[in-house]
Amino acid sequence: MELWFTEKYSPNSGITIKVKKELAHKKSDFQEMSIIDTYEFGKIMVLDGFIMFTEKDEFIYHEMIAHVPLFSQENPENVLLIGGGDGGAVREVLKHNSVKRVDLVEIDKMVVDASKEFFPQVSSGFSDKRFHLHIEDGIKFVKQSKEKYDVVIVDSTDPIGPAVGLYQRDFYKNIYNILNDDGILVVQGESPYYRDTKEAFIALNKELKTVFPFTMPYFAFIPTYPSGMWSLGYARKDGKEILEPLRQKTFETKYYNSETHKASFAHPEFVKELLK
Ligand code: SAM
């Protein structure tokens, strides 16, 4: 018998992937998780029916969410990640030798544990001495934190359930307050294509603009996210329009380079319309 997994992007479309086997199925106080092994994309983490990442294409999202902000600074030392309990973005952040401390605030320990068990190549940064894990709500963490950060990365689920507050103005204001003067915020930014993600894309870019003097979404091609065209919101506290890397890359990547960095800020006409 054939087994297939489908994630719906709209009432009439979605992605369908042939499954070898379900490796785990668990529920936490926050969400339901399935780990599936597939023919095309390797192992996949699914939360509440949505693909979080796949072994085959996770490098794209994780490299782009981490390296664009980090290469937009001369000397990033302190980095905060909200969400992203799988560790993929942590792995990429730790490739920067200037980084002295990485705090990861993930609300759901189940995600961290599953990544350690099923995705050791994604969670490899968890054993680094510079890495510090906090199992708590990112919304509370940024409200109470006395630390200052050079880069804050919000690697969250879609704006439903515990992640709703991660797309709101007060959350962005609290992040603004814990960033250094030239600090950068990058957020998982949804897709401008299908209706639901488009609404979230417009709303979050609008909110970011009310808090930061310079914001600009950038894009990466991610085959297993709705439409493949995925955005990341980029906001600078110093208001500078820096849209290219400030340093040379000294380590290996599979998607990120200085050309993809610069090109990721190019906006198609329909996106410019949405951002007006
Ligand atoms: N970019 C990925 C995606 O949407 O497909 C997200 C990957 S990562 C697994 C998202 C994480 O955000 C989840 O593990 C979830 O538990 C976490 N999260 C959601 N709301 C949160 C909150 N309020 N504070 C901290 N982490 C949160």
Automatic annotation (TrEMBL):
Pathway: Amine and polyamine biosynthesis; spermidine biosynthesis; spermidine from putrescine: step 1/1
EC supergroup of this enzyme: transferase
GO terms for MF: spermidine synthase activity
A single Gene Ontology CC term: cytosol
Keyword Cytoplasm in record: no
InterPro entries to which the protein is assigned, alphabetical: PABS, PABS_CS, SAM-dependent_MTases_sf, Spermi_synthase, Spermidine_synt_N, Spermidine_synt_N_sf
CDD domains linked to this entry: AdoMet_MTases
Annotated PABS domain residues: 2-237
Superkingdom, taxonomy of origin: Bacteria
Binding site for S-methyl-5'-thioadenosine: 31, 106, 137-138, 162
Enzyme Commission numbers on file: 2.5.1.16
Keyword terms, alphabetized: Polyamine biosynthesis, Spermidine biosynthesis, Transferase
Active site residues according to the UniProt entry: 155
Keyword Transferase found: yes
Record's catalysed reaction(s): S-adenosyl 3-(methylsulfanyl)propylamine + putrescine = S-methyl-5'-thioadenosine + spermidine + H(+)
Alphabetical list of HAMAP family matching this protein: Spermidine_synth (MF_00198)
PANTHER family, per database record: SPERMIDINE SYNTHASE, SPERMIDINE/SPERMINE SYNTHASE
Functional description taken from the UniProt entry: Catalyzes the irreversible transfer of a propylamine group from the amino donor S-adenosylmethioninamine (decarboxy-AdoMet) to putrescine (1,4-diaminobutane) to yield spermidine.
The protein's name in its UniProt record: Polyamine aminopropyltransferase
Organism: candidate division TA06 bacterium
